[in-house]
Amino acid sequence: MTDAAKEIRKLIASVDEDTLIALANKGTYKRACKDAEGAPSDFTETDDGIVLDFGGETVTIKAPLDKSICTCPSRAVCRHIVGALVVMKGVIPADEAPAPEPVQETPAVPAEIPAPEPEESEPETIYLSEKDRAKVRACAELCRGLLAEIIAEGLVRTPADMPARIEAAAVKCHSVKAAAAEKIMREIGGRLSDHIERRAAFDLDKFTERLLKCDELLRELEEKDLTEDDLGEFKKKYTTLDGDLSLIPVGARDVDIGDYVGEIFYFIDENRTSGRNFLTVSDLRPVFYESGKKRRRAPAVCPWDLAVPLRSFMKNSLVLHNAKISDDKLSTSSETRVVSQSKVSLNSPVVYDLIKDDFREIAIALDTAGDLETDRLFFVRPTACLSQRYDKYDQQFIMEIEDVNGCHINIKAKFRAETKAFIDTLERIGKRMLADKDTCFTLLAVANIDDGELTIFPIEIYDFIVPFECSGYKLPERYDDAAAYAGYAETLLDLFAKLNGMMSSIIHCGLRSEIRDDEKLIKYAGNCGMKGLAELAGKVIDTASSFRHSTGGDAREMLESMEKLSAYIRTGEQKLQTISALSQMQPGDIRELDP
């Protein structure tokens, strides 16, 4: 046994649950523990570490433990590394841990000893009763059965009454207080209605992603010992902010997302009292039980005891007392009061500090952005419009814009009833920018990186924010070597896109339809060095083939296989999207623009 192996064995024997959670996070640790159940414990000791296979990947445990490496795409301490440590901890005897250092005794000094403060005990975890647990399990089985029926028959053969059946299942979720399940089942039903009614808003890839996420949640409700927190919340919990909240209104947009119709208003938190740059107020109403022909716009909400709708105040800055927020959403409660208001100008340092004139800065910011829309909200200042066109296939308007350094990205706006007027405005502005190179605009836009490409969707356009000095953004040092991996990143993202397309095709055509180029996809993954990905893709393809050639296939097993493949792909995309976006937006090396 090498000295390095001895040292690593001591480290593994001494780690506890808190140490493993600190290496990654609590969710990763729990997932790793679940995957470690029944996992093989064969390992090899090398000169610089301990090597073992876990979850289809090869893990090399090193000292210190956070320097361990894995063959999966993740650059952080992944679930494979944590799972390998859990497996090894069950193999290595606890007596190999280093003995605790002796505590040196110090002479007692007479002094007044304060009474020890009472330790706060953690609240006891209270699980659902067996009766309630059985109700939730039965509801989850019902919902999963509907999802399995969709994937078995395919969207092309889904009966017209399926949205109504999913709605009935969502009502059942409500009756057993499974709030999270109810919400996502309603979303699935709404997206399915979009497909059946051939609405332009339907997105097959997004439907596939949400259907797999829904099945994953339902499967946990079937298998876990549940607490009330596991079921989710019907209403968001709002927190009261300390001090007054100063808001600068910056825009609004109409929303029609199937389940809800209305408006969302956007504000800058001037002093970052909430800890965020942007906050929103939603004026939405549910339309679960209304047909498209009967939908009527409800009277606008008048928040904070205002006598008129909020839209009337969108040119005034507001100061709120006793403001309540949940994530990025402001409560419209009457307990919040407007203590002052005044005319506002967006030509201010607060706005200037948030404007991005270098598209690379947006891509880097998205690298650590959260799941909320406002985490991906930016003021964007392009220097030129290069072209604009209509994509009839995807039914969207596309405008190519350029920043101060010559980087190119696309504005993309999907044609929908609520975006038609805005797209017309965007087209007129594009023509002005093409005709007059000195014309400048600033956009409030939501940014995304999809398939390795940075795109933005505008919410508001301003022609009155005066030009300002270039920000002089410099790419962080951690991307020094990113250019060398740009080609490999784009290759893997292409592979991920093909695999996602395969799963979307299965959802669309059903399990009894043949998967095209299945062997090529597995070979492609293997050639890219993605052993674990190739195995997961092979499992999906084999399960689909088994279902297609038998009468007793299990569509739920297929859903679970697709969930695992989808989770692997999401992990890989998170690490590679930014590198690819930086490469695609500019013609040369991604650092050559820096002074």
Q: What is the compact description of this entry?
A:
The chain has helices at residues 3-14, 17-23, 26-36, 79-91, 130-153, 162-175, 179-196, 204-223, 349-352, 359-366, 420-435, 482-509, 518-527, 531-548, 555-585; strands at residues 44-45, 50-54, 57-61, 69-70, 239-240, 245-256, 260-269, 278-286, 316-321, 324-326, 329-330, 337-343, 355-356, 377-380, 384-391, 396-402, 408-414, 442-450, 453-462. By secondary structure, it is α+β, with helices and mostly antiparallel strands.
Radius of gyration: 27 Å
Put simply, the count of helices is 15
- The overall strand count is 19
Sheet with most strands: 7 strands, mixed
The rough form would be described as globular
Strand order of the largest sheet: 13-14-18-19-17-16-15
Work out the strand percent: 15-25%
Helix residue percentage: 25-40%
Mean pLDDT: 82
Unreliably modeled segments: 99-109
Please provide a written account of the structure:
There is one protein chain. This protein has 15 helices and 19 strands. Mean pLDDT is 82; it is low at 99-109. It is α+β, with helices and mostly antiparallel strands. The strands form four sheets. Strands 13-14-18-19-17-16-15 form a seven-stranded mixed sheet. A five-stranded antiparallel sheet has the order 8-7-6-9-12, with no helix packed on it. A hairpin with a 2-residue loop joins β10 (324-326) and β11 (329-330). The longest helix is centred in the C-terminal third of the chain and has 31 residues, at 555-585. α13 packs antiparallel against α14 (531-548) and α14 packs across α15 (555-585).
